[in-house]
Structures are given as structure tokens and as C-alpha cells.
Design brief:
- The complex is a heterodimer of chains A (245) and B (79).
- Chain A is an alpha+beta fold and 245 residues long.
- Helix content of chain A is 32%, strand content 26%.
- In chain A, the strands form two sheets. In chain A, strands 1, 2, 3, 4, 5, 6 and 7 form a seven-stranded antiparallel β-sheet that branches. In chain A, strands 8, 9, 10, 11, 12 and 13 form a six-stranded mixed β-sheet that branches.
- In chain A, helix 1 packs antiparallel against helix 2 and helix 3 crosses helix 5.
- Chain B has 79 residues and is an alpha+beta fold.
- In chain B, the strands form two sheets. In chain B, strands 1-2 form a two-stranded antiparallel ribbon. Chain B has a two-stranded antiparallel ribbon with strand order 3-4.
- Classes of the chains: A alpha+beta (245), B alpha+beta (79).
- At the A-B interface, helix 7 of A face strand 3 of B.
Chain lengths: 245, 79
């Protein structure tokens, strides 16, 4: 079994399947076909600027895969799904990193950081991918998605960037809250920790009120449910609080 | 779409309809979306407001550094 990081970007258009959903499908496909394991998908916010074309947002979607598949096999199956599911007007790109190989992680993380604050060219993305032996390919349109795909790898490697795709559904509703212990939350969700917005890690026996949409973030290389305290009660953090991730 | 709403909530800059209130002005973004006939919720992972019907959660908003542009208005008012 080897460890891989896979990231895709620019697959969608208004009214089409989101990039996160396509990433999750590829993750499940690769894990199921190889007896491997795929992590949660994380969403990484990139720079928004008039010179950068994007749909309603500019974000890349990344996941880790532990699998016996080779890089060529991963690329073949992932690209087939990417091409089949991407919107006709999209500019999709995919990046695949062999995490166990020797590569300059600092350079990759620096590229990710830069992609959050400046306009980067496709040529720069391809140059870095070649240096780091990362498979980086484009599949339609302008192929601009390769920039975000490579940047998403770097941001995921940093360990404290991005929200986890999707919602955590444990039986709470918009108007009906549910109280669970931290131990129960971790067991039922597969998350690694419950932490406050100021990074206090809750003990397993502490209790949390869950209500409405519950989402997790990627923090300190862990999948974390963020909470805040209100009237001496821990509650799941709202979307506004998650915006920083 | 209510043109009064357009005039009060957005301003035309360089051919783009920009939300006057800017970022993190949730009550205003919810109020405008409630009155808008073009609102379409974006992918859940791209929504940032806890209230679903909010301009900040709409597929037609295009984020900018200090706010967003409404593409629905651009398309509508070009016709």
C-alpha cells in the first residue's frame, strides 16, 4: 500500500455537479476498486481576482488515498471519471502526489500559499510539478484547473487549511438540537478531534450541542469539529466561523 | 427583479454590479436575497452564511477581494 494525495480543480459550471462531489466520487471509486482507504475530501480556498476565471468560487478539492494502485492506474481511473463528470465549459485539472517519495514539500506548500494571494500561471504550475515528480494534467477548456489542483496539494500538506466537504449528520436538525459526548461524536463521524475556535481540545467526556448544519475543518493535520461556547454550553460553530478555513 | 432593490443594494462599477454592503454584512445579504427572484443556492460546500437564502450563498455571486459581483444582474440588465 502506498500513500497518495490527489487534488482536482475547475470541474464545474453553474448548475452542474460540484467539484467536491466529483472528488468524493473519485476517492470512493479508487478506494473501493483497490481495497484501499480514502480520507475525507478537503476544500481549499484560492485567490479570487478578476484575472482568474472561476465558477461561483475558486477552490480546489483534495483527498488522501492509501492504495496498492500505481500512479498510472490512479491517473487512468481518476481522469476517466473526471472527464465524464466535469461540466462541458469547465477547465479541469488533476494533480497526483506520491506522498512516500522524496520531494520538496516546502516548495509545494509555498506554491499553495501563493495561490491564495496572487495570480499564478499554468507554466509555473507545470514547472514545479515536473521538479517534484507530481503528475499534473489538464482535461479540457483552458486547463487552468492545473494551478488550483497543484496548489490544493500544497495547502493540504500544510495541515491547517480547508473545510471538510459535506455536512456531518448525526440526527440534529435546523430547529432541533442533539447533545452528544465528544467520544460519541468521534466514533460516529470518524473525525479526529473536537476543538474550540481558540484551539482548546475538548475531552472525550465533554458534551456538545449540535444543531443545524455541522461541518468540520482540517486543523493541525486532523479532521476537527469546531465548537464555540455559549451560555457555558459547547455548540457547533456556524458557517461564518468556518470561513477562515 | 425589483429595480429599486438593485439600485439600493448594488452599484455599477466597470460593467460589474457590485454589492454595496461588501463582505460579512449578513443581514443585508439575507434581506436582498429574500427579495431576489434569481436566487439559486450554490453548492453547499461553497456557502458561507448559516441562513440558506443569502446573496453570500448564491451561485450568481462572484467573490472579489472586498465583496462580490452579482452575475444575475449582469445577465438580466444586459437584455
Amino acid at each position: 500500500m502506498k500513500n497518495w494525495l490527489i487534488c482536482i480543480d475547475d470541474t464545474d459550471d453553474i448548475g452542474t455537479k460540484g467539484t467536491g462531489e466529483i472528488a468524493e466520487e473519485i476517492a470512493n471509486l479508487l478506494a473501493n476498486m483497490s481495497g484501499g482507504h480514502a480520507s475525507f475530501v478537503t476544500r481549499h480556498q484560492l485567490f479570487v481576482h478578476p484575472d482568474i476565471p472561476y465558477t461561483s468560487h475558486n477552490s480546489a478539492m483534495c483527498f488522501a488515498l492509501r492504495s496498492p494502485l500505481t500512479k498510472a492506474e490512479i491517473h487512468q481511473y481518476a481522469v476517466a471519471h473526471l472527464v465524464a463528470e466535469s461540466a462541458p465549459a469547465a477547465d479541469p485539472g488533476i494533480a497526483i502526489l506520491d506522498v512516500d517519495s522524496h520531494y520538496d514539500a516546502a516548495a509545494l506548500m509555498d506554491f499553495g500559499r501563493r495561490a491564495k494571494v496572487e495570480v499564478i500561471t499554468k507554466a509555473a504550475a507545470y514547472d514545479l510539478a515536473e521538479q517534484l515528480n507530481i503528475q499534473l494534467t489538464e482535461h479540457g477548456g483552458t486547463g487552468q484547473g492545473v494551478i488550483g489542483a497543484l496548489a490544493g496539494l500544497g495547502l493540504r500538506l500544510m495541515g491547517s487549511d480547508g473545510r471538510v466537504k459535506g455536512q456531518i449528520k448525526l440526527g440534529q436538525f435546523e430547529d432541533v438540537s442533539l447533545e452528544l459526548s465528544v467520544a460519541d461524536i468521534l466514533e460516529q463521524t470518524g473525525l479526529d478531534a473536537v476543538m474550540s475556535t481558540d484551539k482548546y481540545r475538548l475531552a472525550l467526556d465533554e458534551r456538545v450541542q449540535l444543531k443545524g448544519k455541522v461541518k468540520a475543518v482540517y486543523l493541525d493535520h486532523q479532521f476537527v469539529l469546531l465548537v464555540h461556547q455559549e451560555a457555558e454550553q459547547w455548540r457547533n460553530a456556524g458557517k461564518q466561523a468556518l470561513q477562515a478555513y | 427583479m425589483d429595480l429599486n432593490l438593485v439600485e439600493h443594494a448594488f452599484e455599477l462599477k466597470d460593467d460589474r454590479w457590485i454589492f454595496k454592503a461588501g463582505l460579512a454584512q449578513y443581514p443585508r445579504a439575507r434581506q436582498v436575497a429574500k427579495l431576489c427572484t434569481r436566487f439559486i443556492p450554490d453548492d453547499e460546500d461553497e456557502q458561507i452564511d448559516d441562513e440558506p437564502r443569502s446573496c453570500y450563498n448564491c451561485q450568481y455571486r462572484r467573490w472579489m477581494v472586498a465583496g462580490f459581483e452579482c452575475l444575475a444582474l449582469r445577465h438580466l440588465l444586459k437584455k
